[in-house]
Write a structure and sequence with these properties.
Pfam families: SIMPL. The protein is α+β, with helices and mostly antiparallel strands. It is built from 3 helices and 11 strands. Helix 1 packs antiparallel against helix 2 (111-122). The longest helix is centred in the C-terminal third of the chain and has 25 residues, at 139-163. The model is unreliable at 4-11 and 182-195 (pLDDT under 50).
Length: 219
Amino acid sequence: MTGRDPQASRDPGTITVTGTGWAEAAPDLMLVSIGVECRAESVVEAYAAAGKDLAAVGSALRSRGVGPDDIRSAGLAVRADLAWRDGEGQRLVGYIASSSLAVRLRDPGSAAATVSAAVHTAGDNVRLNSLQLVLSDDSVVRAQARDAAWQDALSSAAQYAALASAGLGSVLSVTDQCPAPGPVPLAGLQRASATEGPQVELGLNRVEAAVTVTWELLP
């Protein structure tokens, strides 16, 4: 599959064309940011509650088979909890402690159940911050995208050469381009039951490539 951006520049005896291409593959790794946020009257109480709830979340993840190398602490903060009261202005009503984990789930097919187990562990204090589906190794699909980009460039160059009553000779230069980033693929969410939580739809991830090639023009 290819997309075409045939903006070509001509030098005497050469033709330069940029080709683009893409390929898709199903993601095999889910990256999740999950945390807790606890309110209490004192810093110590809020901090302790956040630590307890986050430990419960981590325990739930490990019970579902998530290895220690795939769970990493990603944030910790304590801040004042302020509220506006008529006639008094902004007042301190307590403190909020938050902490989060960056988690790698290597089986996207069971990821929904794993996330659901972690969310239910700490109840309303849990915060599911983000979810991203990625390829753990995109080398194969990236090579396919480069193949498509090369064929796109070659097709465009051959067309321009024919219009100029010339032929394509040797390749004089090849430059690997960085295509503009497209939309980040996200998991589709399909609502299951209230106890199971949303079901994750994997979809496909797209990898794009672009190449600029200069050919010699032959009479």
